[in-house]
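Researcher: Sequence recovery benchmark, item below. Answer with residues only.
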């Protein structure tokens, strides 16, 4: 009996150490990705996030961040075919995250909305109708699960910000979304990398832009 208890304690200690190792690696890599504006560096760190997702294949957040990184890079890439290729990877990683969870949560819905918006951004005139609908639907699904997710309002704000004024967009319509996001970001601790908390700094940037006026 003592031997069984000892083996159980050892197994628990190993599992705990592996979890701590995973979180440390994921946090360090994501921070390196998120804090640079250099495309080459982002690609490098995104590739590392993909490797993390392969190594810790059963961790949904590993696939989540790999997906997120591909979506971000797609906005920075100039070549349309490469942008779509990154988004193909992003969709696959997002689906893997959902598969591990065995369902969507609010964060995976927000991520899906982000990917849809990135698809639309590749060719807005041809894609707005299809992907605009998916974007809105995914955010509504996220809101149903957690109306206090700040990334949801951040994405809505960005969408409004870059929508032409003639179609109801611009700084003024975007401002309330960023203000809503700001208040909700203030409630997040950001202490656990496996609980997504990106978007706070970007929200502050857009808030400042919106407050300058059109």
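Model:
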């Amino acid at each position: 009996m003592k031997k069984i208890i000892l083996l159980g304690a050892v197994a628990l200690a190993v599992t705990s150490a592996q979890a701590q190792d995973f979180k440390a690696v994921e946090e360090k890599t994501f921070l390196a990705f998120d804090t640079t504006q250099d495309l080459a560096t982002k690609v490098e760190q995104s590739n590392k996030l993909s490797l993390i997702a392969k190594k810790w294949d059963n961790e949904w957040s590993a696939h989540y961040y790999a997906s997120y990184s591909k979506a971000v890079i797609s906005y920075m890439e100039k070549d349309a075919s490469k942008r779509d290729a990154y988004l193909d990877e992003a969709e696959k990683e997002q689906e893997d995250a959902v598969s591990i969870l065995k369902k969507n949560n609010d964060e995976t819905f927000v991520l899906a909305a982000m990917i849809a918006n990135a698809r639309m951004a590749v060719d807005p005139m041809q894609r707005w109708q299809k992907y605009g609908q998916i974007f809105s639907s995914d955010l509504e699904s996220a809101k149903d699960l957690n109306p206090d997710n700040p990334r949801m309002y951040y994405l809505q704000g960005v969408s409004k910000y870059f929508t032409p004024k003639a179609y109801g967009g611009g700084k003024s319509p975007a401002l309330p979304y960023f203000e809503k996001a700001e208040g909700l970001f203030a409630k997040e601790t950001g202490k656990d990398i496996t609980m997504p908390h990106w978007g706070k700094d970007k929200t502050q940037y857009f808030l400042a832009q919106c407050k300058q006026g059109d």
